[in-house]
Design goal:
By secondary structure, this protein is an alpha/beta fold. The chain is 43% helix and 11% strand. The protein has helices spanning 4-29, 34-57, 63-70, 140-157, 177-185, 208-215, 260-271, 290-302, 315-318, 324-327, 349-372, 374-377, 385-402, and strands at 82-84, 90-92, 107-113, 160-165, 191-195, 199-201, 223-226, 253-257, 310-313, 340-342. β1 (82-84) and β2 form a beta hairpin. α3 crosses α4. The two termini are 34 Å apart.
């Protein structure tokens, strides 16, 4: 594509050439064409000015626009009632969809961490990334893989994206930053979606709005989190349950909607360890599972008046990953992370899942392009032997002639 300055010169050149031709014709037709020359000059000047103005006001296409356009052919409709993944598994929306239009940049996908992925061969580092050498190991390399996955997903669907590098909080485990950062961004966005550093979106073509419909997230839902994987720790089969025996919600994937109830909920969550309201919550300042256990032990019971203010996402949809239960016998829930894989144990698999998600989507795009343009790319000697051989011979003769 020519730069705007070149385009303006081309437009001016065409206008000038047109004017010269009209003058030449007028001179050969006599004096009655002077008015035509004036009109032609006026029109040529107007055309050149219009061309220049168009190029001055045209905004360059952003990276997000380019990615969104690339994925246009495979983006799943927001209001569809079903989805079939690459393995052939079908998923259905069973209730009337609450969300029928894309939310775009009303949604923020945020990565928040106290670690900096800005070292050598890391996503915010100064050197060019070598994906082959990204290990996916816990720390900056794992963050590199997940950030790329989350950022790409946001670009595809027009969501905003931020990486929030938080400072450690004195007297609290680092994961306690979640209610603070969520509260901050809820001031500016309708939805804030947090995805953990060891979690990845697996179907890049599926928008959040469709998942909202599948999971029953409505216009009055404040928060949605997945049911945690059950596990045995130190012989305790109820290690993943709260004191009432209910499995905890995992805060590695949090969807928060800006509502008055949500903001009150976030404040109660932040204040929980002070024990001003919730006695015993200070136990979870630094003991596992920190803010996660505090939310499940106290907050979820006080902020769900309508039954859908807090949504429990199925474990199989947004927890675990293929092989988790098989390879780790202490894991009791065989959750495979159908839409969001959360690599709570095998952290380095974050890279593998990022690669799988990207390649699955790109191969789908390429396959659809090849099939749409099959007549252009597909040549079958069996279907058209005579035509094929004639064209082949013509090409050979032409090449020999050039030699």
């Amino acid at each position: 594509m020519l730069p705007p300055s070149c385009n303006r010169l081309v437009g001016l050149g065409i206008a000038t050439f047109t004017l010269i031709v009209l003058i030449f014709i007028a001179l050969h037709q006599g004096g009655g064409s002077i008015q035509q020359i004036k009109e032609a000059a006026k029109n040529a000047a107007s055309s050149a000015a219009s061309s220049a103005q168009t190029h001055l006001t045209t905004k360059p296409t952003s990276f997000g626009d380019q990615i969104s356009q690339l994925y246009q052919s495979i983006k799943h409709p927001v209001d569809s009632y079903h989805y079939v993944d690459p393995s052939g598994m079908e998923f259905k929306v069973t209730a009337n969809p609450s969300w029928k239009e894309p939310l775009g940049n009303d949604v923020l996908i945020v990565d928040m961490d106290t670690r900096w992925p800005d070292g050598d061969n890391e996503v915010f580092g100064k050197t060019k990334l070598n994906w082959e050498n990204v290990t996916g190991n816990e720390g900056g390399s794992m963050l590199t893989a997940s950030v790329l996955n989350h950022f790409m997903y946001a670009q595809i669907h027009g969501y905003d994206y931020k990486f929030y590098r938080a400072e450690p909080m004195e007297g609290l485990h680092n994961t306690w930053i979640k209610p603070y950062v969520l509260s901050e961004f809820l001031q500016s966005y309708r939805f804030v979606v947090f995805i953990d550093a060891d979690a990845t979106i697996q179907h890049l073509d599926v928008p959040l709005e469709w998942l909202f419909n599948k999971w029953g997230i409505t216009h009055r839902t404040s928060v949605a989190m997945p049911i945690d994987t059950r596990q045995i720790l130190n012989g305790d089969e109820n290690a993943s349950c709260d004191s009432k025996g209910k499995v905890t919600l995992n805060t590695g994937f949090v969807i928060a909607q800006k509502l008055p109830l949500t903001l009150k909920m976030m404040k109660a969550w932040k204040d929980c360890p002070t024990e001003k309201k919730y006695k015993g919550c200070a136990n979870w300042k630094e003991n596992w599972s920190h803010e996660q256990r505090a939310f499940s032990e106290y907050i979820r019971y006080d902020f769900n008046p309508d039954g859908d203010n807090i949504i429990e996402i199925p474990c199989d949809d947004a927890m675990g990953y293929p092989g988790l239960a098989k390879n780790h016998p202490h894991i009791l829930s065989d959750c495979k992370g159908r839409f969001v894989r959360h690599h709570t144990i095998d952290k380095s698999m974050t890279k593998t899942s990022t690669s799988d998600a990207l390649l699955n989507s790109l191969t789908d795009i390429m396959q659809k392009s090849l099939m749409r343009n099959k007549l252009k790319y597909w040549v079958s000697e069996v279907e058209r032997p005579k035509e094929f051989l004639e064209k082949f011979k013509e090409a050979e003769d032409k090449r020999e002639g050039e030699e």
